[in-house]
Amino acid sequence: MADVEKTYYFVVAYKRSEARLLRFAEFADVAAARQARLETELQFRGDPDVEVTVLSARNRNEIEKTHSRYFGNARKMTPTG
């Protein structure tokens, strides 16, 4: 039987014009991640410059490799969960 690695879900809110992460949160449960995405979309609904998404991967390092534009300038990240 093959080893199955756990999948994690990451909610990302990204301000395009500033190339800045507004939120980066990790979830083990896809339903919780979807709920967090919805809440985040509602939070930023008046700003068309904010992109909100859920990404899945085995760990944060994979996300940083496959979606590196979100992490181009970690100093600009606002920790919001």
Write structural notes for this entry.
The protein has 81 residues and is an alpha+beta fold. Helix content is 26%, strand content 30%. The chain has helices at 30-43, 60-66, and strands at 8-15, 20-27, 50-57. The protein starts with 7 loop residues before the first strand and ends in a 15-residue tail after the last helix.
Short descriptors:
81 residues, alpha+beta, 3-stranded antiparallel β-sheet, disordered C terminus
Main beta-sheet strand count, sense and barrel state: 3 strands, antiparallel
**DSSP strand (E) fraction?**
25-35%
Shape call: flat
**Which regions have little confidence, pLDDT < 50, spanning 5+ residues?**
75-81
Q: How many beta strands in the DSSP annotation?
A: 3
> Would you list the SSEs in sequence order as H and E?
EEHEH
Helix amount: 25-40%
Give the helix/strand class: alpha+beta
N-end to C-end Cα span: 36 Å
